[in-house]
Amino acid sequence: MKTVLITGANKSIGFETARQLLQQGYYVYLGCRNLAKGEEAVSRLKADGLDHAEAIAIDVDNVESIKAAREILGHKIQALDVLINNAGIAGSFPQPPLETPVTEFKQVFETNFFGVVSVTHAFIDLLRMSPEPRIINVTSGLGSLTLHNDTNWKYYKIKPAVYIASKAALNAYTISLAYELRDTSFKVNAVDPGFTATDFNHHTGPGTVPDAAARVVKAAVLGQDGPTGQFYSDDNAPETGISPW
């Protein structure tokens, strides 16, 4: 049975991603800052007959918490097949680039960028033990430099400087990581779940959580003939699903 760790998995897109992967036969570890909330999420899944799920305490902003989660998971499994870096924050709005304090940038980058790097570093050894490891970084179309330089820029009514910058950095890291692992069996991709109605945006997005999670799952279950180093965005590339960075 393949294993997957999802950060920020106790609610919303992370939780639904866990549900869909469980339905496909994966054993899912739900990474959550609050273990009690994680265990409650697992209970909801098990009530629906999805038994192969466990909660793991992990705060991506805290290096010691990440190390502890790695140690716990290392006692449970010998290999991790999929890592989904889903945990993220939006920061306080609005985020004008000239008025937003540096402290706000640092706070958002700590979760959206440095947290992803730290978690990836911590679990890369377990991923290397898998015959077909997958790393998925959940990003946003707002982090695409290409899209912000063409007519799609006008699509976005708000331009949150902090959030955009953090996701642009995440996209760049995804490209670099995929290139480093290009001659291995790894598939490393970024996924834009789309503008989805969640707590993240006060439920203002037009997309649904199940549809958003399905986009993440598609990258998680890629076969060996699938691409790596790509930016999946059905919103911005409806025909192929792969958008320019």
Automatic annotation (TrEMBL):
NADP in keyword set: yes
Entry similarity comment: Belongs to the short-chain dehydrogenases/reductases (SDR) family.
Name of the protein: Short-chain dehydrogenase
InterPro entries linked: CBR1-like (IPR045313), NAD(P)-bd_dom_sf (IPR036291), SDR_fam (IPR002347)
The species this protein was found in: Mucilaginibacter xinganensis
An annotated Gene Ontology molecular function: oxidoreductase activity, acting on the CH-OH group of donors, NAD or NADP as acceptor
Keywords for this protein: NADP, Oxidoreductase
Gene3D superfamilies named among the record's database cross-references: NAD(P)-binding Rossmann-like Domain (3.40.50.720)
